[in-house]
Amino acid sequence: MAQAVKYASSNGDSRTVQHATDLIFEIGLALGADSASDSAGLPLGLLDEAADIIEQVAGRIETDGWSVCPCGEDHGQTEADARVPGVLRGDAELIRKIRAKGDA
Length: 104
Fold this sequence. Notes:
Layout: H1 2-10, H2 14-32, H3 44-64, H4 77-103
């Protein structure tokens, strides 16, 4: 989620930044609600939304040329930007697997 926020912020998408940071905050509240427990109850809708945002940002990197550094100068970000969508999609897939266990 933090990587999605960084890309959205660097590319001027304040709506995605706000939505993703709201989700990060809500997930943090759920995780911290019972700090004595080894597990946390997360609303499954939060996981769905997180996975969707991560997927959307991966797509924007690929189709809209979003970059972690959109200044136009080459800082080696082109190679990093090319790898990030796959990593983000892997994160979204992991979230969906965790979410599916919650349905079981």
